[in-house]
Each structure stands twice: as C-alpha cells, then as structure tokens.
Amino acid sequence: MSVIKVALLGFGTVGEGVYSAIQSHQAQLRKLLGKEVRIVAILIRDQTKERMIDANILVTTNFEDIIEIPDLDVIFEAIVGEEPGRSYLLQAIEKGIHVVTANKEMFANHGHELIQRAQENEVNIGFEATTAGGVPIIRTIKQLLQVNQITKIQGILNGTSNFILTEMRERKLSFADALQLAQNKGYAEADPTNDISGIDAFYKLMILSQLVINQQPNWSEVIIDGIKSITQEQIEQAEKRGQRFKHIAEISFNDHSLVASVQPIIVDSNHPLYSIEGVENAIAVEASLVGKITLQGPGAGKFATASAMIEDFVDIIQHSATKKRREYQSIK
Questions:
Q1: Cα dist from 50 to 12, 23, 44, 188, 303, whole Å
Q2: Which of 141, 149, 208, 303 qualifies as a FRET site for 56, CA 20 to 30 Å off?
Q3: Taking every annotated instance into account, which residue ranges of this chain make up the domain Aspartate/homoserine dehydrogenase NAD-binding (predicted)?
Q4: What are the pLDDT digits (tens) for 121-135?
Q5: Interval 273-324: pLDDT, tens
Q6: DSSP code for 182
Q7: Mean pLDDT of the chain
Q8: Residue 126, Cα to own-chain centre: how many angstroms?
Q9: pTM of the model
Q10: Pick from 253, 294, 251: which is nearest to 272 by CA?
C-alpha cells in the first residue's frame, strides 16, 4: 500500500494531539484515503525533553531536515507566534507541500499571503483549527458564502476564558482560583495572558473577517477587553437577574464597514450564546438567506484542535486525489 508522508512542526499540546490522533485512527484514515498515513518527522525545540515518539520517526530541531524529505505530502504546523511558523509554511508551499495550521496569531497576520502563495503553487492550506477548536466554522462559512451574505458573527472563541467565567458563576470561585483550576486541567497555558485579555479571540475574529469579506478591520480600532476585572459580586448580581457574563468576539459587516470587538458582555437567556458553558466554543452567524445559525463544540484541549486539523488533512488529500483523477481523464 502506498503511503502519505506527513510531518509535524511543534510537539506541544496540539502537536501531540495530532500525533496521537493519526496513530489511533490509522484504520479509519486508511479506509478514507486508501493509503497509510505515516508521520515521518517531527520538529521540536528542546531535544533534552522526554517524549513518547516512535523510534522510526525523525525528531529534529532543524526545519531543513524536514523540508528536504523526499515526497513529503503534508506539514501540520502547531507553533506559537508569527515566526518561524510563517517562514516554514512559505518554504513548504514553495516546494509543493500541502499545509495544515493551528497557529492563529500567525494566520491572522499572514493568512492572506499564505493562501495566495498556496494558490500560485497549486497546493492546499487548511486552517480550521485556527478559530474555534473542534467547531467546523471555517467549513460552514465557506459553504454559506456560495450564496448567503454574512452580516454578523458573534462568538465565544476562547475556551479558557469561558471556563473561568463558568467556574466563577457555578462554583463561586474567585478569578484567580478559576484561572488556577483552568491551568491545572490543562485548559490554560502557564502564561494565560492572550486568553484572558481577549487577544486570542481577537486573532480568531480577524481570521473570520478575512474569510468572509477578504479584509480585516483596522486592528487599532477593534475594542479588546479581557475578563480579569470581572468580580464574583458582578457575576452574582447578573445571575440574580437571570443573566450571565460571556466573553464575546463580534463583528458586523454592513455596507462594507466593519465594526469589531472582543469584550465581556452580559447576556440573557434569549441570547444564542447564553448556555455555552465550560471550555465550549460557539459561533452565531447571521446571513441573508439562512437567517441565524449557531454552531457549538469543544474549544480547548488537544484533541478538539487535533480533530479540526485531521479533518482538514483528509479534505486536502481527498481533494488532491479528485483533482489528479480529473487531470488524468482529461489527458485520456
């Protein structure tokens, strides 16, 4: 049986999740794709750290070792920050390698460039994992955009901040205690600044804006406010009124003007995001024909993000196989 060769860039929470998912779902992938999916290399940062990785896989700190692997089909990128992720993916695209990324900061800044370069080099780029964990919002919006005009998006796009607000309300925890619990459960990083400040959700909102209308608002004009200042007393007062605090990312598309924000909002039971709890993410979309739809799913944890990356990967391989069959038939 022929083989699909893949490499992982990064072996943190997300990278390890992709590794585990490919290993544990090998039979299903073989059934879907007709080939074995083989991880041939993993890029890491610290070689002294112990990792449970198959001895047959190349583990390296040098990206050149990976990019030079013959017949490499797909690269999964799960590195934090703009660089070196952007540079690595551009090199991969130039070599005709498909890419799947979960790097929201990098993609918010450089997604347009990467998509354009991928089109020029006739490769595919998957970025479902950059926005809402296991919620297939990118695929859904692409489907809606065939006919619908999207006018508004509201989302809970960060599972960590949503978990903290839920625990503060349900268990009467202080912000500090709820954050510590999120870190203990692996939902929050050692440095949770981007999550609790709204920066993480902001990056995701910019990716959705680029997808919907091929542009983003001026970043300096977007209101970004975190959840750190919300007190237990405020949460209890809202609950007595039947309301809840939610950390909501929102963007409206009206007559080519963009209004965007990420901030804590008090919502009542009529709001589509009212019942979204714990590490769940959800996105409410308003569109011209379909009206209002809401998608919900896990937004934090390695397997939620890994799921989005694997689904992108399968879609890319199937799309490539279909394209090759059509090209072959046209030659005949």
A1: 12, 19, 11, 22, 21
A2: 303
A3: 10-128
A4: 999 999 999 998 889
A5: 999 999 999 999 999 999 999 999 987 677 888 999 999 999 999 987 655 5
A6: H
A7: 92
A8: 10
A9: 0.92
A10: 294
Tell me the two tokens of residue 80. Answer: 């934090």
Centroid of chain to Cα 132: 5
pLDDT in tens, 52-74: 899 999 999 999 999 999 999 99
Residues of CATH 3.30.360.10 domain(s) within the chain? Answer: 137-298
Q: Angle at which helices 13-24 and 26-33 pack, to 10 degrees?
A: 70
Residue 124 DSSP label: -
Four-residue CA torsion sign, 142, 282, 116, 126: negative
Task: Dump pLDDT digits (tens) for 156-176.
Answer: 999 999 999 999 999 999 999
Q: In what order do the strands lie in the sheet with 291-298?
A: 223-224, 257-267, 244-254, 150-156, 280-287, 291-298
Architecture of domain 137-298: 2-Layer Sandwich (3.30)
Catalytic positions are: 204
Rg of the chain's alpha carbons, rounded to an integer?
Answer: 21
Distance CA(206)–CA(227), nearest Å, equals 20
- Give the integer Cα–Cα distance in Å for 271 and 264: 14
Q: Return the closest-CA partner of residue 262 out of 135, 162, 148, 133.
A: 162
Neighbours of 231 (CB within 10 A): 11
Please check whether residue 167 is in contact with residue 181, taking contact to mean a CB–CB distance below 8 angstroms: yes
What is the residue whose two structure tokens read 């047959």? Answer: 56
Whether the CB-CB separation of 306 and 191 falls below 8 Å is answered with no
Integer Cα distance of 179 and 301 in angstroms: 15
C-alpha–C-alpha distance, residues 266 and 236, integer Å: 12
pLDDT digits (tens, 9 = 90+) for 223-265: 999 999 999 999 999 999 999 999 999 999 987 678 999 999 9
Which amino acid, one-letter code, is at 51? R
**Which pairing describes strands 150-156 and 223-224: parallel, antiparallel, or unpaired?**
unpaired
Q: How many CB atoms lie within 10 A of CB 269?
A: 9
Its sign, for the CA torsion 138, 139, 143, 146, is: positive
- How many C-alpha atoms does 238 have within 13 Å on its Cβ side? 22
CATH class of 3-132+303-331: alpha beta
